[in-house]
Amino acid sequence: MKKTKAIVSLLLVFAVIAGLFIPCSARTATSALTPGPVKRGFSLKNNVFYDFLTVPGNIPMTALMTALKALRFTMYFFSGSFLFGPPKTLDISLSQDIIGLCDYMNEHSSLDLYSIITDFPDVNDPAKLAGFVFQIDAKEYRAQMYELRDEYLESGNETLARIAWVVGSYLGGVEKVEIYTVPYEDVSEVELRVSYPDGSSELLHPNILIDFETGKCYDKYDKGMVYMGFDNNLYDLLVYAPMYCWMRDFGFCAEYDLICYLLPMYRYRTRRFKFNYDGRDWMIQCWKGNYMCTNGGEVGIYNRPEGKAGSYYDSITDDELMPMSMTVSHGDELLVNIPETPHWWVNGFKLSDSLYHPMSMTETFTVTFPDEEMRDAFCKAVESNIYHDVEYSADGLTVTCVW
């Protein structure tokens, strides 16, 4: 344990030095300007169109590219690797089927997943230095940390288990990562083989499943891939959050929107419909607009104890789920289509070469309520919304809203 504390302290020293004296930087990519069926890098052709303002925008794929490069350089500096030489990339290889998916996305959206993955920085030098300074047997230390990981998992502490695994594998010094797929029931599962300098290796299962026929790429446990909270359909270029993503535990409040409004990668509009039903305060909120380099929308259902102060609402429980659907379109172009399904938050964000002004997009969503009382309370909330820009119609217990 003393060695672990010393190692962590050493890494923190690297981080402080980097934070004080090394500015983060990002290179500008221009390789994607070369035409061709597959373009490595990021395209500059992504534009924001203000249909009724005719003002050009400049925040799409190039901004994302710059942010990713800045992140890579941040990892390079804050890991202390800058002390050991110029940036290096980790040896990462992809199987041909995964490369094919990356090429498809690159061709249709200008998002080059292949370059993003294979340009991952090599930050092993600080680990090698720590092993030398503290005379650590990397293989033995990794085994000890993995035992600690298993103990945390048995006690139900997944967070500490992940930390123990990361520290153990990092101090071992990752030499190579191979990413490929293996059969899993009717689809394929992603596996990672991580090799270490001592000749040992281990198989990792990030619980990512790929259906190569439909393009669906998703988490095995419906929580969102690699704890990011989102799955995607690679062929539809669609990103979406599954039922049990981590965001569900955080409900929603107006402050979340306020933070997003301050960030340059979000540009959307929202409407909130609040009403009382069955002794609780309810809120159905919808959004549409630009999310980083995507066009999309959302509809969420939340509630809280009646009369509770503040803007925070809890996500509804499994017992309160309602059938919902959503589409987002721009003129005749259908951008997002989420079929009806019991949910608490339907959403979809499509990678696009063009980002459209939020108010030039049309969002249509449906909610099927459990009874007439709740349906009528919601309809009254739509009618009383101060913007008066949402039209609705009711068919039995199903309400369709067009915004």
Question: How would you describe the overall organization of this protein?
Answer:
The protein is of the alpha+beta class and 403 residues long. Among the domains are: 1-87, no CATH class; 251-402, no CATH class. It is 30% helix and 31% strand. It has nine helices and 20 strands. It has helices spanning 2-21, 61-78, 96-109, 113-118, 125-133, 138-154, 158-172, 254-262, 372-383; strands spanning 47-49, 92-94, 176-184, 187-195, 201-204, 208-210, 216-219, 231-233, 238-240, 266-277, 280-291, 294-305, 314-315, 322-330, 333-343, 345-351, 354-356, 362-368, 391-395, 398-402. Strands 2, 3, 4, 5, 6, 7, 8, 9, 10, 11, 12, 13 and 16 form a 13-stranded mixed β-sheet that branches. A five-stranded antiparallel β-sheet has the order 15-14-18-20-19, with helices on one face. The protein has a two-stranded parallel sheet with strand order 1-17. β10 (266-277) and β11 (280-291) form a beta hairpin. α6 (138-154) packs antiparallel against α7 (158-172). The longest helix has 20 residues, at 2-21. Mean pLDDT is 82; it is low at 5-59.
